[in-house]
Amino acid sequence: xxxxxxxxxxxxxxxxxxxxxxxxxxxxxRIISVVAKNGGHLASNLGVVELxxxxxxxxxxxxxxxxxxxxxxxxxxxxLTGRNAELDSLRTHGGISGxxxxxxxxHDWFDSGHASASISQALGLATGRALSGSEGRVIAVIGDGAxxxxxxxxxxxxAGQISDNLIVIVNDNEMSIEHNxxxxxxxxxxxxxxxxxQNLRWGLETAIDKIPLIGKPFNKFFFRxxxxxxxxxxxxxxxxxxxxxxxxxxxxxxxxxxxxILNRVKKLRRPVVVHVKTQKGxxxxxxxxxxxxxxxxxxxxxxxxxxxxxxxxxxxxxxxxKILDLAEKHENIVAITASMKKGTGLSKFAYRYPDRFxxxxxxxxxxxxxxxxxxxxxxxxxxxxxxxxMQRAVDQLIHDVALxxxxxxxxxxxxxxxxxxxxxxxxVFDIALLRPVPDVSLLAPASAEELRLSLDWxxxxxxxxxxxxxxxxxxxxxxxxxxxxxIGRGVLIHMNEFRLxxxxxxxxxINTPKETDVGVPIPENNDKxxxxxxxxxxxxxxxxAARFLIEHGLSCDIYNLRFLKPLDKEYFIEIARQYDDxxxxxxxxxxxGIGTYLESLLNRYHVNRNTAVCGFRDTFxxxxxxxxxxxxxxxxxxxLARKMLSL
Length: 647
Known about the structure:
Layout: H1 17-38, H2 43-46, H3 49-58, E1 65-68, H4 75-83, H5 118-132, E2 138-143, H6 150-162, E3 166-172, H7 183-189, H8 195-209, H9 215-233, H10 238-241, E4 245-251, H11 255-266, E5 272-277, H12 285-289, H13 315-329, E6 333-337, H14 347-352, E7 357-359, H15 364-376, E8 380-386, H16 387-390, H17 394-402, E9 409-413, H18 430-434, E10 441-443, H19 448-459, E11 465-468, E12 491-494, H20 515-518, E13 530-534, H21 539-551, E14 557-560, E15 563-565, H22 569-576, E16 581-589, H23 594-604, E17 610-616, H24 626-632, H25 637-646
Parallel strand pairs: 1-2, 2-3, 3-5, 4-5, 6-7, 6-8, 8-9, 9-11, 10-11, 13-14, 13-16, 16-17
Antiparallel strand pairs: 10-15, 12-14
């Protein structure tokens, strides 16, 4: 069967086992070819091909709702629901998402991207359907890694009490993003209710059901008896204790067995957990041998799995090296991450200081509160979390850290515009969410050297310090960012003294926009003094806009804030008084951001200047390359130059 001929799951229902094996092979080849070109989540998708085929053959999506946790493993699901022709556009600007997206297909019930939410979502959907009398089963597919998140256990505890129409598929590949070393992984590996027990159970239930008149009533007694037997012989089954039927573990690559068991499970009218063992990266040896590297990967060479490397230094790499330097000098430094050791740059720290490193699993709330406790004991915790995932722990930052008077350091990687992953992963909310928290410092370094200086400063503070930076290479540095590090103050950059770097210099340069791109007349003999005020993550685009103005004979400087909180207000006002036109630019949401605050500050101090605020609008930000995202958000160099000239 040609993959393009699959318009819905109904098209695979009548295939033979031989045809299904060929289908699985074709799907793997298709996924590998697309991810090699576009980047994406490879290992997780290769691991669930057979499971996804079985689910769509047994259940009738979208009438039966399949809810994917995180949904980074839903590429096969997209192919089977008629989106193979669009798969080449995966994760590209205007293309289909690398995650489930409800606007993309009726088979995608939720926009997903964060872990541990599927059981709660599925339980709500199943309960709502029961209340409204709607038909159809609800199936949550959750990985063993996502079960390290507390939200999943909250949902399991509730579902066992109220649901009779929920099926939870636990996709157990003994990994989340990297190897699971925690209690959940060890627990799943000890599960002992294997195939022989399941076959005996199904056989007895079927036989009892067939007894005339008394079959169904007796089966209810048998169900209670079975619970009691399990309590004696299988006392460690947490899912049973939560009120679920438990089935498994099953071979997640044996479609025939999966279909047989799922067809039986489909008939049950009580909550069920189906435990499925899969191999992450299956069918592509580089991903099988190194599934962590192939979890989320950029474009790569299919023949050897090698990713094209760039010489430019990233913010993550700078942090990775600097934290090692600081840990050598400060023995009380410990590092914490929420299942993102490699992504946040803590792999080297974990290797060198294993007794001072903690991966708490996909549990950001615990990571933050745990850091507060460590700090209370005199340690200096450095917590590295992506900006989008830090959203989950705002209460913990307020209640368990700031209010307690302790001083961890929080590293927010992937702040601002995040390429490729779309709405769920954009780091645009952290400034507006975290600036209002009392007794917290928030810094936004613009370069490698500023990041190093920020960390040196943060180590010495007795308040929580948050350092945010983008997923990008560091910009060129020169003399611009070497000024003294003073609390609450940024760096005033006189652009007429600014030189472009030589080609061999490390760093990234954003091209100066063309006059046709800016699209407004350039004033002649204009004596106005202009100033961009920016957060560090958007500095390359702001500097390109300022260079455009300088090259056309206009005055324009940049004030790189460094500190988003606290702010030396008097120092800022003193600088602002020197300029006629001021444009505030931030790589965060405009509502509640730093730009609107600074603009109001000028009004409060009666500094009457022409001003504008540029930031992300009040909308969720779709996928694309960084330049495409910023273009859509009116944060490109050309737009910023146009905005300044429009004042």
